[in-house]
Amino acid sequence: MWVFVTDNLNTHQSETLVHLVAERCGLDEELGQKGKSGILQSMATRASFLSDASHRIQFVYVPKHTSWLNQVEIWLGILVRRVIKRGNFCSLDDLRTKIGDFIAYFNRTAKPFRWTYAGRPLQA
To answer: Which terminus of the chain is more exposed, N or C, with fewer CB under 10 A?
Structure first.
């Protein structure tokens, strides 16, 4: 089973993604037509299909406006800024080595993130 945790960006609920998941899970059911009927009718129906726990590939969507909770996204941003952006790599192996070296360095020197969110309290 594959479980993907994503935000609610529309590309994470696209018609193409529904077709891909249906194909990879071996589902033969009628998907309908985008904007008109069935699973493909709306973002909500596509999200419901993609988050179905009975599928081998499942998407879990974090609540809207909670990207600040996604520590992996924060860490990947650090990796991109410090290693990949404006990087000079001779080969794919060189890129892998530099990313591996950064991960080792980061693990040795990491400190907890200091949350600075000062907006409205989240409501249930």
So the answer is: C
User: Nearest to residue 52, comparing CAs of 8, 9, 32, 22?
Assistant: 22
The number of folded domains in the chain is 2
pTM of model > 0.70: no
Q: Distances from the Cα of 84 to the Cαs of 12, 102, 111, in angstroms? A: 24, 10, 21
Question: Percent of the chain, pLDDT > 90?
Answer: 68
> CA nearest 117: which of 72, 80, 62, 70?
70
Which tens digit of pLDDT belongs to each residue from 18-72?
999 999 999 999 999 999 999 999 999 999 999 999 999 999 998 877 766 667 7
Within 10 Å of residue 124's Cβ, how many Cβ atoms? 2
| CA dist 111 → 5, 70, 75, 98, 122 (Å) | 24, 17, 12, 21, 26
Domain that holds residue 28: 2-63
